[in-house]
Each structure stands twice: as C-alpha cells, then as structure tokens.
Specification:
five-stranded parallel beta sheet; Rossmann fold; two-stranded antiparallel ribbon; 7 strands; single chain; alpha/beta
C-alpha cells in the first residue's frame, strides 16, 4: 500500500510561471537558429543555474562578456531585460494550485532553482507565488536541484516526510533526483497532463 500524500512540492519556472529566455531573445535574433545557438553555446542553462546557485548576476554577466566580447549586448540583455523572459502565470497550473490550496488537504511548498536577485521581482508580479506554505529558493540557500541536500533542506525546514510528499518539475534530471531521494515525482508537461497524474494518485481537483 502506498503512503498517503499530504504534501505537494512545486517547481516554479515553466511549471507555474512561464519563464523562458526565448520570450526575450526572439525579439533580439532574426532567426530561431541564431537564437538557439546563442542559448546553447553562450548564455547556457548551466551558466544561468550558477546564478541560481548564488553567483551574482553581475559576476555571471562579466564572466561571459570577457569570454565572448562580440556578444556583449546580447549577454547583458539576459539580466538587463530579464522581465521580458516572463510571460505570466501558467493559468492551468495556477488553477490546480488554487484548488489544492482551497481543499485544505495538503501542505504546499515550492522548491525552485532561481536567483535570489530575480525571484523578488517575480514575487511582486505574481499572486500565486504567495499561496505556498513555504518556498525554498536556491539562490538564497547557495545550493540547487538536483543536489540531494537541497531536497533535504526543504524536508527538514518544513518537517516533511519524503514518503508523504509529491514533487512536480519540468526537468527530468530533477525528477529523477527526487525519485532517488524517495519522493514520488511527476515530470510536468502541461497542466492537463498534471491533472491526470494527480488523479492517478487519487488527488482529485
């Protein structure tokens, strides 16, 4: 018999908040190919995640400008125009979160890889970020997913038992890490798929 789920842990970017650097860089590059090469080779996800782990935005930016001076303006746009990477709340996920909260059956937390310099901007923009019982932000903690210690931090801080928790993330790497840690996890694709996955676990909304 599986354990009863009483805690649901959400990732935020691309799950609840539509954050994607392509929202910005489609305005800058004349072709998808150019944009994808830039994001693959210069402003990479790995580089961004180092800011999520606590490196300052200024330090990360200057590091890349020194390496790729010919791309300086586009590199500086990453954080200089960061709000243009935000395309609002993902309404379907927002509705699911709202219904879970209204049910009163679950503790709701967020575990996010996010810079502590940019997270407050999103917090001011989006009401749904205030609905959680607690949020753990990687940039504030100087660690990030998929590190087991980051999951452990949330469990310890909020007195959560791994077997009673469910984790939702759009990154397969993070989902696999959570499962290895003993937390049932859903690889998020879209709100409709999430609703089905929740219903499969007898979480009906």
């Amino acid at each position: 018999m599986s354990a009863i789920i009483n805690t649901i842990i959400f990732d935020l970017g691309a799950v609840l908040i539509d954050w994607n650097p392509r929202h910005l860089y489609r305005k800058i590059f004349s072709s998808e190919e150019e944009m994808e090469i830039f994001l693959r080779d210069i402003c990479t996800s790995e580089w961004n995640e180092t800011q999520d782990e606590g490196r300052t935005l200024a330090a990360g930016t200057e590091l890349l400008v020194a390496q790729f001076p010919q791309h300086e303006s586009n590199i500086r746009a990453y954080y200089g125009r960061w709000t243009e990477m935000l395309n609002g709340e993902i309404e379907g996920t927002k509705n699911i979160l709202q219904q879970l909260k209204a049910s009163g059956k679950y503790k709701l937390y967020a575990l996010t890889n996010w810079s502590d310099e940019t997270y407050p901007i999103a917090l001011n923009l989006y009401p749904s970020l205030h609905w959680f019982d607690g949020v753990v932000v990687s940039g504030s903690e100087k660690m990030r997913k998929p590190a087991p210690a980051f999951f452990q931090l949330l469990l310890d801080r909020y007195h959560v038992t791994a077997a009673n928790a469910l984790f939702i993330d759009d990154n397969k790497r993070n989902v696999l890490a959570a499962r290895a840690f003993g937390i049932d996890s859903i690889l998020f694709e879209d709100p409709h798929q999430l609703k089905i996955e929740l219903e499969n676990r007898s979480i009906n909304i």
